[in-house]
TrEMBL record:
One annotated GO biological process: carotene catabolic process
PANTHER family: BETA-CAROTENE DIOXYGENASE, CAROTENOID ISOMEROOXYGENASE
Name the record gives this protein: Predicted carotinoid oxygenase
Native source organism of the sequence: Bombyx mori
Bilayer-spanning residue ranges: none
GO molecular function: beta-carotene 15,15'-dioxygenase activity; carotenoid dioxygenase activity; metal ion binding
InterPro entries from the UniProt entry: Carotenoid_Oase
Cofactor annotation: Fe(2+)
Binding residues for Fe cation: H147, H205, H275, H464
Alphabetic keyword roster: Iron, Metal-binding, Oxidoreductase
Binding note for cofactor: Binds 1 Fe(2+) ion per subunit.
Length: 474
């Protein structure tokens, strides 16, 4: 499908934008991949399911036979209790490999991520699934975050859990960039941290990185290891293994990038988070900006049943009542010093993005996000937040729901916000067969262009994406 549009991207060569998208089951986190390709003012759109083992098994059985994060599979009479016990020791084989959350480059290759140990290599042109990698094989990870950090030199860092001598550890893994060879074969652990609760390690969706530190936020939302075993045997989804401890504070840990050891630990109020906005060092402190909630009910709100009954649930909007907050960690503070967060903007913000290539891990001013205030006049709002003044600018359209805004700088950018934002749009009501690529001026938040398509089936709402200039080798 193709659509013409003018001035789609100022002074830009041909480009490709990939999105990891969702499809409804019990929790809307089972997905496919979208691609918007831009060439000479023409935009093409394509969409394809990730060819995971999970998809193949479910299609072969014509039902859900692999348990997902929040979706229980149907009973398989051929799968005995002994098979389930054996599967506990093969996490890469027993877990769903439906990598539906995000897409990241490793050298000249693109991989689809979830929080399980399996990632899939994707052809960015055809969207075909080319390869399947199990992190348990190359670096002994049983899980990892779905948001690794890609450094300017091509190195990639991620945080996961690993079972080592002495027990479970949060580990930081480095995948060194190489023009030839396999980045995964060269992977190595560069830092580790013993969880504050050995049998209840903190749930971690993202982590932070600065010039000198890795930042690990141990929120009081944990993954119960005993619960994982019980739920595996009982065929219950992973979400049943998550536990919230409302009477415990949040720990923020700095790990040295020099020697990999714990450098200092801080405390702050009880909070739940999914996404770190950015971290940086300034004036003798480490600054951590994140999208925070008072509790994890935002996860409950993502289930299909909760969405279907939201109009009759007076508390639904409060479940999503989060705010972007800043934690300032003085480097000369004593161990376990308590820090009080400040609010960066008085709007609910989620799936935040920044001018990543130049400002990741460095002092920055602006971030971009979508609204998490579901009771706002226009809940589908794209937000630009100024972290210095607290001023926000927004874009919205009735009944329209944008994806995470991806910042793309102009080739001659002089200021942090010189560039455009790319968002995938879907609509509610009788427009569910429409999808569009929206381009906003990142400085003014005014619409520059859009390319709109009609799809044969309902268009899925996207989660996270990655922009690829077509001049790369990918």
């Amino acid at each position: 499908m193709a659509a013409e549009t003018q001035n789609l991207y100022p002074n830009c060569d041909s480009s490709v934008w990939l999105r990891s998208c969702e499809e409804e089951v019990t929790e809307p986190l089972d997905g496919n991949i979208n691609r918007f390709a831009i060439h000479d003012g023409i935009v093409t759109y394509q969409c394809q399911f990730l060819k995971s083992n999970t998809l193949k098994k479910n299609r072969a059985a014509n039902r859900i036979v692999v348990t997902e994060f929040g979706t229980k599979s149907v009973h398989d009479p051929c799968h005995t209790i002994f098979d389930r016990v054996a599967a506990i020791f093969k996490p890469g084989d027993s877990m769903s490999d439906n990598a539906m959350i995000s897409l990241y480059p490793f050298g000249d290759e693109i991989y689809a991520f979830t929080e399980g140990p399996i990632i899939h290599r994707i052809d960015p042109v055809t969207l075909d699934t080319l390869d399947r990698k199990n992190m348990t094989d190359c670096i002994a990870l049983v899980n990892h975050t779905s948001h690794p950090h890609v450094m300017p030199n091509g190195d990639v860092y991620n945080v996961g859990m690993s079972i080592v001598k002495g027990g479970l550890r949060h580990v930081v893994v480095k995948f060194p960039y190489t023009e030839k060879g396999d980045m995964f074969e060269r992977a190595k652990v560069v830092a580790s941290l013993k969880p504050r609760w050995p049998l209840h390690p903190a749930y971690m969706h993202t982590f932070g990185i600065t010039e000198n530190f890795f930042i690990i936020v141990e929120q009081p939302m944990s993954v119960s290891l005993c619960g994982v075993v019980r739920n595996q045997l009982a065929n219950k989804p992973l979400a049943s293994s998550l536990h919230w401890y409302p009477n415990h504070e949040t720990n923020i840990v700095l790990l040295s990038r020099k020697d990999g050891k714990e450098w200092k630990r801080y405390r702050t109020q009880t909070l739940f988070f999914l996404h770190i906005i950015n971290c940086f060092e300034k004036n003798g402190s480490v600054i951590v900006d994140l999208c925070a909630y008072k509790d994890p009910k935002a996860l409950d709100a993502m289930y299909v049943h909760a969405i279907e009954t939201m109009q009759s649930n007076a508390d639904y909007a409060e479940w999503f009542r989060g705010r972007p907050k800043r934690l300032e960690l003085p480097l000369d503070a004593p161990r376990l010093a308590k820090v009080v967060p400040t609010i960066l903007a008085d709007l609910g913000c989620e799936t935040p993005r920044i001018h990543y290539d130049l400002y990741n891990g460095k002092p920055y001013r602006y971030f971009y996000a979508i609204s998490s205030d579901v009771d706002a006049e226009n809940p589908g709002t794209v937000i630009k937040a100024d972290t210095v003044t607290g001023v926000t600018k927004t874009w919205c359209e009735p009944n329209c729901y944008p994806s995470e805004p991806v910042f793309v700088p102009t080739p001659d950018a002089k200021n942090e916000d010189d560039g455009v934002l790319l968002c995938a749009l879907v609509w509610g009501g009788d427009r569910e067969h429409e999808v569009a690529l929206l381009v906003l001026d990142a400085r003014t938040m005014l619409e520059v262009a859009r390319a709109q398509f009609r799809t044969p089936s309902p268009a899925p709402k996207c989660l996270h994406g990655w922009f690829l200039p077509q001049t790369t080798n990918i």
